[in-house]
């Protein structure tokens, strides 16, 4: 982590009552960066955001903004504005009053407030709606009012707590891009909490994946997608197919030992930190390819080949999804053309799409969400 | 047809109860207000205004002042319960504030009578602490005593409704205001109160109507003139057997409370529109 980060969370522990949610967590965020905190519910991502915002007090550790310790400061003195999941618009105030309230609290003149409010309304495409109450707006418009209210006070850091989860699926896709381009245009630092992988991938410069109060991995969207550091990250990033195997590591080569459904395969270690012993092997449905049993095409080097029976076929759109049975296990594999149910098939997974992790003790079951 | 008949049969017991025990007595009382001897007229009303017009004003002023004070205190208590940052103080207040609700009006009157009298407990304590001399003591057993009794008894009820409404607000609307730097007082007045105003209004109107009908408190605390209409109604019946004027006074109280109910109806119509 860069020690000169703009927002710096150091060894922070937070909890409610006697339960600790986050334990000695470190996080650094650069100025102008868009960071997504990604994780399933209960992983502590919202607690982290609320603690940064000043709504929860840490037991220990510190939060600094531009080398200024804000750990004990009230929420409004931190130069941050939070956009709430429920939008938290004040139903008795008009759109203009909602957006202008922060400026009113800062004792700006009436004229200044009006000018800033109409600037915000123009920026967010809310022109002409200034006199409406939140109850008269669509979900997308409410979301933009909440954004306008947060941006009106010109915060250094914008905090977004699952701001898209209450929107229709279709609107959500466009709002993602709107928020992202707005953030780029304003050059504002943003932290975005979400449980939606795709949303994090599309919006963020950097993704911080959290699990059980810890940061599992952080990196650019490509990094966390293609080089998951832990089985949890691999599973969260869509590598839901899981198989148990044995490997032996020989220098820069790893050998996946022969199993009931595969021949022994040697593949490059490619920077993986592995030790000889039982492993959990993960891959995405779309990363694998299916061929008929009789297909004799040569296997590319390092790829894993599995042999199984098609248990069922479905069409989720774009490609056919096959459930392939390997003894007791079942894996999902996509293919451009459907294979018959019951057909014996070969599943090929290229080397770079295999995520292999040592299992700490005993065979690990698939992670459930 | 038999289905409709069955439906009618099902509501009939309730309907009979309402007609028999509510509409008939009310109607009889209204008719009774206009009965002067064997004929009908406004005699009871002219007598009511002649004898009790100052009591009418006294009643309206006392109940109105009490309502305002109840509103003020319930906002303060409810606000602290919602926005207070000391969990222990909040828990203590939450435990304490409801007690007066479970004490009957007559007991409230009696308790406050012994407490507020010129040589009552309050003045005795003040004298023994050297804050007042015995000559400086003042009894509160007049309109002030009634107001204190009403506020003491009714504030918990309105607070209960109000604190419930405040607790069910979307907490993040409060946090959003804090995030922008609003003080707790501003949050209470500008964010919380406007959202719970309808509940406050209902609580205050119910309190107003309750206080209009309390007999024991004015009898216990203020057995002098001017007094409240309830005491006058009891006096007309018990001392004079004068049901005519009693009914007229009852109708006048009914009209006063109806005025308040009208405000409420108008407000709720406006909100629905």
From TrEMBL, chain B:
The cross-references to SUPFAM superfamilies, in alphabetical order and at most eight, read:
MetI-like
Q: Which GO terms describe its biological process?
A: transmembrane transport
- The primary location reported for this protein is membrane
Question: Does the UniProt entry include the keyword Cell membrane?
Answer: yes
**UniProt domain ABC transmembrane type-1: residue ranges:** 56-264
Record membrane topology: Multi-pass membrane protein
> What transmembrane ranges does the database entry give?
57-83, 95-116, 143-166, 187-209, 245-265
**Keyword set, alphabetical order:** Cell membrane, Membrane, Transmembrane, Transmembrane helix, Transport
Quote the cellular component terms of the Gene Ontology held in the record.
plasma membrane
Task: Offer one Pfam family short name for this entry.
Answer: BPD_transp_1
Subcellular localization: Cell membrane
Similarity comment: family membership: Belongs to the binding-protein-dependent transport system permease family. CysTW subfamily.
Q: What is this protein called?
A: ABC transporter permease
- Organism the protein comes from: Phyllobacterium sophorae
């Amino acid at each position: 982590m860069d020690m000169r980060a703009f927002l710096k969370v150091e060894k922070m522990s937070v909890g409610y009552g006697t339960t600790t949610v986050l334990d000695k967590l470190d996080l650094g965020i650069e100025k102008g960066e868009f960071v997504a905190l990604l994780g399933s519910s209960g992983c502590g991502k919202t607690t982290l955001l609320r603690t940064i915002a000043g709504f929860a007090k840490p037991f220990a550790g510190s939060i600094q903004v531009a080398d200024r310790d804000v750990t004990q400061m009230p929420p409004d003195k931190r130069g941050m504005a939070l956009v709430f999941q429920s939008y938290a618009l004040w139903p008795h105030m008009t759109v203009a009053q909602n957006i202008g309230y922060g400026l009113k609290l800062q004792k700006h003149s009436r004229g200044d407030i009006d000018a800033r409010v109409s600037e915000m309304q123009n920026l967010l495409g809310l022109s002409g709606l200034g006199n409406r109450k939140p109850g008269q707006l669509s979900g997308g418009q409410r979301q933009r009012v909440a954004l306008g209210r947060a941006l009106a006070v010109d915060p250094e850091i914008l905090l977004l707590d699952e701001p898209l989860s209450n929107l229709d699926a279709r609107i959500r896709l466009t709002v993602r891009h709107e928020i992202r381009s707005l953030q780029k245009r304003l050059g504002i630092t943003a932290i975005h909490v979400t449980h939606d992988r795709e949303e994090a991938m599309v919006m963020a410069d950097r993704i911080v994946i959290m699990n059980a109060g810890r940061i599992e991995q952080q990196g650019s969207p490509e990094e966390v997608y293609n080089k998951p550091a832990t089985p949890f990250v691999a599973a969260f990033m869509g590598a839901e197919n899981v198989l148990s195997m044995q490997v032996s590591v020989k220098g820069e080569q790893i050998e996946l030992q022969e199993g009931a459904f595969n021949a022994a395969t040697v593949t490059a270690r490619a920077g993986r930190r592995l030790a000889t012993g039982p492993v959990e092997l993960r891959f995405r449905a779309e990363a694998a390819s299916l061929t008929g049993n009789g297909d004799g095409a040569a296997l590319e080097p390092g790829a894993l080949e599995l042999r199984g029976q098609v248990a069922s076929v479905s069409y989720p759109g774009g490609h056919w999804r096959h459930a392939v049975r390997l003894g007791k296990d079942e894996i999902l594999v996509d293919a451009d053309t459907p294979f018959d149910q019951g057909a014996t098939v070969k599943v090929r997974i290229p080397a770079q799409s295999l995520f292999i992790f040592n299992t700490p003790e005993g065979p690990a079951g698939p992670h459930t969400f | 047809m038999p289905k409709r008949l069955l439906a009618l049969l099902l509501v009939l017991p309730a309907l009979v109860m309402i007609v028999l025990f509510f509409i008939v007595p009310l109607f009889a009382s209204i008719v009774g207000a206009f009965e002067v001897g064997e004929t009908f007229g406004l005699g009871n009303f002219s007598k009511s205004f002649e004898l009790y017009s100052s009591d009418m004003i006294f009643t309206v002023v006392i109940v109105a002042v009490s309502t305002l004070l109840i509103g003020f205190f319930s906002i303060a208590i409810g606000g602290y319960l919602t926005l207070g940052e000391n969990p222990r103080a909040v828990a203590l207040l939450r435990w304490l504030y409801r007690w007066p609700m479970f004490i009957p009006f007559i007991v409230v009157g009696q308790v406050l009578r012994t407490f507020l009298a010129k040589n009552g407990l309050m003045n005795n304590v003040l004298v023994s602490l050297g804050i007042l001399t015995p000559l400086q003591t003042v009894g509160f057993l007049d309109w002030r005593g009634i107001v204190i009794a009403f506020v003491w008894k009714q504030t918990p009820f309105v607070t209960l409704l109000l604190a419930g409404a405040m607790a069910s607000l979307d907490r993040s609307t409060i946090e959003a205001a804090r995030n922008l730097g609003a003080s707790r007082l501003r949050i209470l007045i500008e964010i919380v109160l406007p959202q719970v105003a309808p509940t406050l209004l209902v609580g205050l109107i119910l309190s107003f109507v309750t206080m209009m009908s309390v007999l024991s408190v004015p009898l216990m605390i203020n057995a002098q003139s001017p007094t409240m209409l309830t005491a006058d109604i009891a006096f007309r019946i018990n001392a004079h057997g004068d049901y005519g004027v009693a009914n007229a006074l009852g109708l006048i109280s009914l009209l006063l409370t109806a005025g308040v109910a009208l405000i409420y109806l108008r407000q709720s119509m406006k909100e629905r529109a």
